[in-house]
């Protein structure tokens, strides 16, 4: 048991909390300690009866049955593996930025478990698109294709691809707005981590280091002069917290 405890404590904090809650909530429903209907998202009960816990529990709840148990375990592994890599890689030492990514994806995804996991996996794959990954039966390919391979895999074992497709699309939306458009294409920044998250989750130096880095900013966008620009500077570049770039150099 001490080995399991050591392994669990080795998981980075944000992923550990999400992973533990994604085990606890489904089993609470499975064991009947709480009626599973109280864990699911029912919008009229949120708005009319103020069941404010439902948006959270609906994201963590998964109906475990003999037919869905394997799919649940597979996605639980994806959560642990890719969220850990992303938190200790591209978001190393930047818990506020990682929490903001999860919040953004969570809201866009309509608060469901599998799409949120897939959105995190998609973002990790974009940071590591040229890495060769191994999948079932020894197949190997670039990480860029991993979200779509998993979409097909989950469709085969679960009979649906809507959740996986939703997660991929939301992950793409976040990555495009946060990194691709402002950094690679030289456009304005539409997303930035709220300042209050930095107050509660300050940046840390000397983290675990990394899998993946954000796209390089185009030189022309980097070298633009700052003084005298019209419009009060409202479209300036996003400052990643406390003076060093997300993912490091």
TrEMBL record:
Region of interest: Disordered: 212-249
Superkingdom classification of source: Eukaryota
Gene Ontology cellular component annotations, sorted alphabetically: endoplasmic reticulum membrane
InterPro entries according to UniProt: DER1 (IPR007599), Rhomboid-like_sf (IPR035952)
Keyword Transmembrane helix appears in the UniProt entry: yes
Family: Belongs to the derlin family.
Mode of membrane association: Multi-pass membrane protein
Keyword Transmembrane: yes
Biased composition range(s): Gly residues: 225-249
Protein's job: Functional component of endoplasmic reticulum-associated degradation (ERAD) for misfolded lumenal proteins. May act by forming a channel that allows the retrotranslocation of misfolded proteins into the cytosol where they are ubiquitinated and degraded by the proteasome.
Organism, scientific name: Seriola lalandi dorsalis
Any single biological process term in GO: cellular response to stress
Protein's name according to its UniProt entry: Derlin
Alphabetized UniProt keyword annotations: Endoplasmic reticulum, Membrane, Transmembrane, Transmembrane helix
Compartment annotation: Endoplasmic reticulum membrane
